[in-house]
Amino acid sequence: MIVSYMITAECVNCGACERECPVQAISAAADQYVIDDVLCVECKGYFAEARCKWACPVNACVPERESYLVRAVSLANKGARPVVYKGGPKVAGRVLQAHQPDKVNP
Amino acid sequence: MAKRVVVVGGGWAGSAAALCARKAGAEDVILLERTDSLLGTGLVGGIMRNNGRMTATEEMIAMGGGDLFEVCDRNSRHVNFSFPGHKHASLYDVAKIEPAVKRYLLEKGVEIWNFSRFTEVDVRDGSIAAVYLESGDRVEGDVFVDTTGSCGAQTLCTDNGNGCVMCVIRCPTFGPRVSLVGKVGIKEKAGKKPDGSFGAMSGSCKLSKETLAPHIREELERTGMVMVPMPEHMINRKKLGVKACAQYALSEYAENVILLDTGHAKLMRPFIPLHQLNQLPGLEEARYVDPYAGTVGNSMRFTDLSPRDDAMKVEGNIDNLFCGGEKAGLLVGHTEAIVTGVLGGHNAVRALAGKDPIILPDSISIGDAVSHVREEMETERGLKTKFTFSGSVYFERMKEKGLYTTDKEAIVKRVKKAGLEDVFNQRVM
Asked: Helices B52-62 and B67-74 meet at what angle, rounded to 10?
């Protein structure tokens, strides 16, 4: 899902995007121009293509990538099963045996 | 069907709680652990029996709940040695301790579930009926012990610390800690730093021993400790205030880099930029092994503290929930986690058996600490204080009240006098 456009570090500070943006979402920051992702509407209702992308001479205006937004997905979320160790007195001196049950509940 | 005890969180406290639930006679004990290993922050620990911890350890052994202390003793690299502000310490080997504890728990019949992160709870009529794991599995139980600790998630470290520093808790991989007490809707407290912001930063890092100069490594392995003086321009005394471990907030720790031999080289400060560390003679090539980004910070802890009574029963609208470890209050350290875990696990089984809980009297330092910390946590000042048997305000209190001693016979006598000898070895059901 694209929620806004963003400007990468390739930005050369020309200001073309700021002048073109229909919703004034772009402003100058310390080293480059930046897009306010709350204001950006991806030019929906204004232009067929994002205007900053169209205007940028170095192709630095890109859709904000999903990988920047999605929180880290944990290993367990990827479907890892519990690993169960059972013991009893016979454990002594042996390599510990674990098993991964398909379903853990009785 | 046998009644089941479910312990949520497999750090020192959870391991102790599960073990003592078995010892108290529970037939079915499941220990749920989020990651691939037991012990949590215990994997970076190592320091046992220093100062008042010696008293607490021997008390717990006399009361019959000291099994895990004896496992630590058997896996110690150095015993009965001193470092600044601390006497008669022993250091367990962080590389060997986890398999040793896992094996011991399995021998005693605890069932250990790794990769089993608790995420949801099923409450019926004021009791917890079951917990759900992230995998979707439902684990039913009759009594529950929350030993989920107070570290993580990453947001805790980004909001109140210096960001995720990739510590042994490994939230991004295994998913963040979820508090069982919090999930059932009981309001928890958070410890505060002296400036009033939340949490406290863990107080030590680990360096790879292989990256230290040979003479430092040799001295470390021979004596257990090395002190490398810091050049004057690098001394930052202010940083001592942010540490969770108040017992190490001494000027020696600001003016020196102190290394202890726990298998790796335990670096006794919350963090130090690597380029500064590398300016010290002998540490020119030092590298962090935990946290990986020890250059900028350390893990944050001491949020989500449970309201609880002195039997470790969680106070609130749930009748079958106990706690231990850092959940039980601002008690810092592995020894502290083990003793509160023992109490929580044992009393959980007593509750199942319909028996009155054990409340340790204040003639025993553990009993005094449990009730003193609970009272102190009611106050703003208390929430900014950290308590440990090994130093700072609580060790002072132990000395004032005559509780601190290293005389084993006196400790056994003290425990006998209170009628608590071997009590945690007794089956109650």
From this structure: 120
CATH, domain A5-69, list 3.30.930.10, 3.40.50.300, 3.40.50.720, 3.30.70.20: 3.30.70.20
Spans of all domains in chain A? 5-69
Tens of pLDDT, residues B36-74: 999 999 999 889 999 999 999 999 999 999 999 999 999
3-state class percentages of chain A: helix first, strand second, coil last, to nearest 5: 20, 15, 65
Give B102-144 pLDDT, tens digit per residue.
Answer: 999 999 999 999 999 999 999 999 999 999 998 889 999 999 9
- Which residue in this structure is represented by tokens 């309201």? B307
Which token pair is A52?
């900053």
Task: Give the predicted TM-score (pTM) of the model.
Answer: 0.85
Bridge partners, B201 (sequence order): B243, B300
Count CB pairs under 8 A between chains A and B. Answer: 86
B346: phi then psi, degrees, rounded to nearest 5: -65, -45
Q: At what angle do helices B12-23 and B67-74 cross, to 10 degrees?
A: 120
Give the residue from B71, B106, B174, B177 with the most A CB atoms within 10 Å of its CB, the best one to mutate. B106
By CB atoms closer than 10 A (0-12, 13-18, 19+), residue A23 is middle
CATH domain B203-290 topology: Elongation Factor Tu (Ef-tu); domain 3 (2.40.30)
What span, in angstroms and rounded, lies between the C-alpha atoms of B233 and B54?
37
The reply to whether ipTM tops 0.90 is no
Instruction: Give the Cα separation of A27 and A7 in Å (integer).
Output: 11
End-to-end Cα spacing for chain A: 40
Residue of A nearest to B116 (CA): A82
Report domain B4-196+301-425's class: alpha beta
Helices and strands of chain A, counted as H and E runs: 3, 6
Q: Answer yes or no: do B109 and A87 touch at CB < 8 A.
A: yes
Query: Cα separation of B318 and B231, whole Å?
Result: 55
